[in-house]
Design a protein that fits this description.
Distance between the termini: 25 Å
Helix content: 25-40%
Bound molecules: pyridoxal-5'-phosphate
Largest sheet: 7 strands, mixed
CATH topology of the largest domain: Aspartate Aminotransferase, domain 2
Number of domains: 2
Number of strands: 15
CATH architecture of the largest domain: 3-Layer(aba) Sandwich
Strand content: 15-25%
Mean pLDDT: 93
Oligomer: single chain
Low-confidence stretches: 1-21
Length: about 375
């Protein structure tokens, strides 16, 4: 296949290229059609047919002509019954990424304590809104990043009831937050809201979800992303769950009334309600495909002398030993392949790269390109 060669500012390590405040925004994706995109992790199996059908049905019904139900009753009920939680604790989101905008607006917290390195949007948002941002580093222990329990507790106690944020599994390290440590964190910080971003947890065979703790801690909010789970990144839909009823009500009142579009809310509600078994089976199979693909990437990259951290997510964090991330991206880009330069994450270096797990042939093509281009 012939691919056009484009240059892309995000993938040459120069940020978004937009003026001033937005320069902090760096994400994967935005690669030309026809590229093999390893830069923006998602479900490697892509969109399930049953969801595609539900989206098409919503479009055929012309649902986009109407406002969605601003209470999202169907969506809430469907989420609650699929995940075994209470509908009153579900706050619909325009993707997991929307949560922090709502949280910061609603809770008026002046401080954010965050386990880093992690998803950069939080840092960016804190910078733009002038909220104090306290990063707490994961401890790098060989090929793993350990959950910084003491660091988070100390930082949060030293602050003024900050919002504490972490991801499970974490982007970009792929590390899980062990439930026993999360429980300790929640017990130690009863005056703080702890937000656990689980955008990728349904694509993991090994990370346990903080939903298991939800009934015990009202200071816990969990984020989920259908965007990632069902590979519909452009649809923009997810939810927040908390057993804190007042918190759920406050957050719900803060969100934009129609924050999830009518096609997305109809399709996801329909799939969870009417195709629940298929959806569960799809997620189970997806997590298995991720596990197998991740093992192949890890083995192939390790053979090339790359340090690959132990991951539980649909991506791996890798540290090159010879060729910088920026130069590697440039060489791969010329072959129509995109990976994520991870040097923009705090505590990582110019040699760190994040690579999404894709299907077997794609993963093999990436490894071939690594070999031929002398990367590692
Ligand atoms: C940890 C984390 N949370 C949330 C998101 C965004 O999720 P969504 O597309 O559901 O907004 C990302 C995207 O990469 C992420 O890495």
């Amino acid at each position: 296949m012939v691919v056009e060669v484009h240059t892309h500012p995000d993938h040459t390590g120069r940020g978004s290229g937009l003026a001033g405040g937005l320069a902090c925004r760096q994400h994967g994706g935005r690669v030309p059609r026809g590229f093999l995109d390893f830069s923006a992790p998602s479900n490697p199996l892509g969109v399930p047919e049953f969801l595609r059908e539900a989206i098409e049905e919503a479009v055929e019904l012309g649902l986009y002509e109407d406002y969605p139900d601003y209470d999202y009753r169907d969506l809430r009920e469907a989420v609650a019954s699929f995940y075994g939680v209470e509908p009153e604790g579900v706050v619909p989101l325009n993707g997991a990424a929307e949560a922090l905008n709502i949280l910061l607006l609603c809770l008026k917290s002046r401080e954010l304590v965050v386990a880093e390195p992690t998803f950069g949007e939080h840092r960016c948002l804190a910078g733009v809104t002038g909220i104090s941002y306290v990063p707490v580093p994961y401890r790098e222990a060989g090929d793993y990043f350990e959950f910084p329990l003491e660091g988070l507790v100390d930082a949060a106690r030293a602050g003024d009831a900050p919002v504490v944020l972490l991801s499970n599994p974490n982007n970009p390290t792929g590390a899980c937050a062990e439930l026993s440590k999360l429980g300790e964190l929640l017990s130690a910080l009863q005056n703080s809201l702890v937000v656990v971003d689980e955008a990728f947890v349904e694509l993991s065979t090994t990370c346990r979800s903080a939903l298991e703790l939800a009934d015990d801690y009202e200071n816990l909010a969990i984020l989920r992303s259908f965007t990632k789970s069902f590979g519909v990144r452009g649809l923009r839909v997810g939810f927040l769950y908390t057993s804190g009823r007042r918190l759920a009500q406050t957050l719900d009142a803060c969100r934009q009334p129609w924050n999830v579009n009518s096609v997305a809310s109809y399709a996801i509600a329909k799939v969870l309600r009417d195709r629940g078994r298929d959806a569960r089976e799809y997620l189970r199979r997806s997590a298995e495909v991720v596990e197998v693909g991740r093992a192949a990437l890890t083995e192939g990259l390790t053979e090339l002398g790359v340090v690959v951290y132990r991951s539980h997510a649909p991506f791996v964090l890798a540290r090159h030993t010879r060729v910088s991330a920026r130069e590697s991206l440039r060489r791969l880009w010329s072959r129509g392949i995109a990976v994520r330069d991870a040097s923009s994450f705090p505590y990582l270096t110019e040699y760190h790269v994040r690579i999404s797990v894709r299907l077997r042939e794609d993963n093999a093509r990436l490894l071939r390109a690594y070999r031929e281009l002398g990367l590692g």
